[in-house]
Amino acid sequence: MLTDIYTKQKENNEKACNALKKEFQTIRSGKVNISILDNIMVDYYGSPTPLNQVASVLATDATTITINPWEKNMVKVIDSAIKAANIGVNPNADADGIKLFFPPMTKEQREENAKIAKAMGEKCKVAIRNIRKDANDEVKKLEKDKVLSEDEAKKAYDEIQKATDLAIAKTYELVKEKETQLLKV
């Protein structure tokens, strides 16, 4: 029973850290990354669809992203969706596609993005603490049902706390790594 609780906690902690890594990809650093467009949805015949499912998206160099819709009538729709998303650049549309030219980031933009990364890290830590609470609640229930003794429950709480400390340390390292990447010119 306790092994299941520990395994579930570790898996959920890993999911939280992976979600943080994925979220970090949406923050712009010095070099453009196409994942900055991951959250953009376009109206594709009446249903919201992710941008990468209606067009090919390529980073052609360190400051340019090229978007080539599979249907030429989607250029205007994609153009307006990018403008609405407010990602910090205006799209340059022509008959065949859209180009996004990202200017070099200023020191203030880098610092602001580092703050955003820190806030994302804090959200991840809160998620990890909630995972710990859920695991502790399961142990409490087992203790209340007399399946575990008081000593076994105490050991279980200690084990859960160790796993939580490891996950929070990993989150801290991920945030530090991202901050270093963002602040490097």
Structure description:
The chain has 185 residues and is of the alpha+beta class. The protein has four helices and six strands. The strands form two sheets. Strands 3-4-6-5 form a four-stranded antiparallel beta sheet, with helices on one face. The radius of gyration is 22 Å and the shape is elongated. It starts with a helix and ends with a helix.
Structure, briefly:
The protein is an alpha+beta fold and 185 residues long.
What's the helix and strand layout?
Elements: H1 2-24, E1 41-44, E2 47-50, E3 55-61, E4 64-69, H2 75-85, E5 92-93, E6 98-101, H3 107-144, H4 150-183
Helix pairs in contact: 1-3, 1-4, 3-4
Percentage beta strand: 5-15%
Number of helices: 4
- Number of beta strands: 6
Rg result = 22 Å
Element pattern in H and E: HEEEEHEEHH
Strand order of the largest sheet: 3-4-6-5
Largest sheet: 4 strands, antiparallel
State the secondary-structure class. Answer: alpha+beta
Share of helix among residues? 55-70%
Report how far the terminal alpha carbons are from each other: 50 Å
Low-confidence parts: none
Mean pLDDT: 90
